[in-house]
Amino acid sequence: MSDLKVAYFSMEIGLRSDVPTYAGGLGMLAGDMMRSCADMGVNAACVTMCWQHGYMKQTIHADGSQTYEDRKWNPIDVMKKVDKTISVTVEGREIKVGAWIYDVAGIEENIVPVIFLDTNLEENSPQDREITKYLYGGDGYMRLKQEVVLGIGGVRMLRALNYNNIGTFHMNEGHAAFLTLELLKERDYKDELVRPNCAFTTHTPVKAGHDVFSYEIAHRVVGDMLPWHIKDLAGQDSLSMTLLAMHLSHYRHGVSEIHGEVSASMFPDEEVDYITNGIHHRTWACDEMSKVLDKYASGWKKDPSVLTVLDCDDIPDKEIWNAHQSAKKRLIEEVNKHTVTPFDSDTLTIASARRVVPYKRPELLYQNLERLKEVAGGRVQIIHAGNAHPSDKFSQDVIQRMVQRSSSLKDFVKIVFLENYNPDLAKLMVSGADVWLNTPMRLFEASGTSGMKACVNGVLNLSTLDGWWIEGYSKDPESGWRIGPLARATDGEAHRKIDAEDLYTQLQFEVIPEYYYENRIRWIRRMKRAIGLVGFFNTNRCVNEYIEKAWTA
Questions:
Q1: Which residue of 10, 255, 295, 432 has the lowest C-beta tally within 10 Å?
Q2: pTM of the model
Q3: d(Cα 201, Cα 14) in Å, to the nearest integer?
């Protein structure tokens, strides 16, 4: 095996819909980063987990209730089995870890291997085979076991595959922080020999999103792999995976400018930079829009920065609109398989899809139903999608209410909630919608990338000024619309009513009239400007920044 510029560790990765080893944006970013590494010829490898079931299969019933069942897939159908196993010690016993490799192919011939770690081996006991059964499943004990396999097991598997000279070990969130323990063991437990070769990305602006374990549980599960000075590295009172990663990394960063600021305030003793996320432009552009860009933005697939200087006047309005309408018709065909009230391709279509969690305020649009009826007036149709964990009552109830509203509001606005949100459905939505709606509580959206995927297809963002959209809107206010005041937020919840009313006002006086205005001249110009944003918000630019700031060893 050749040397590696970077070994990128991530608890989840989203590569394809039939490989359910992802839950949300963390995994989608990992997949896009590896695609850009492959395109750019960066000598990289990714280490992740071979989840037997991933997130569960969702069925939404007519009354809005939901049931779930395990996803069935077999890695042998899409990956190569590695002929080596390694061992890790968990709770004092030895566990065997195997691996599968999926090759991510670049635009030319470069390959980035993604190594999926697997404890579902005959040599292991039934309880240990379940370590890689469910993504984010189980209690704190199970999470620790999973993180031992990912971090310690991941380094050992790389060594077994003869990757002995690795420039940077990159931890994509704190789940991978135990890789530093294996590196300490390799390097005589000298922090100063580990730190120069490690980098860390934090994605979570919410305190509860950072893994913290009691030392009693940590010693029971991790045992002798915890070094004598673990409390100096990971916190005196409890073991913080984020602090462990930060203290043994030479570079640590958030995923947008505002998230960098939030992270620095959460960890005031740490130096936290930022590298704003991006998307893999080739993956998320629909076929019709890709053909238009091939014609008028030569070289954009290899060098997406070409889109930054895209001249709006170069692309005929008719061509970009026809490309969008083709994508929209595909989306509407899919929607109409799931609704008794047919959607159509001539009505303004708003899409919103993400994990159903409180800080994303999934029901902000429904804050005032009378106001929504007044604004929509039969001129709007709305598509929702997103997965809810079976044990999460908040998420279950949100989805049920949305399904029920599709009946009670049908005379004013058509609404549908699509089940089993996955990359294929996401691509249909980000290319076929007219408007991409994102309504997080301010200061709680680390970055968000779905809106970038919409942009590359000429779909316009209507979003709270948080995460990446602060930067996107600042770069070009004519590429979409903002929700809420321009002033920076100081208290997220205090803005809820203000944001809801501003959302209705934007729809009533800006978005809806502009969509239905004769020839849609201004709308189509916005579409072109939205595409231009992807000249910056792409993972090729991210990889270049990572090489400059993080992958320096």
A1: 295
A2: 0.96
A3: 17
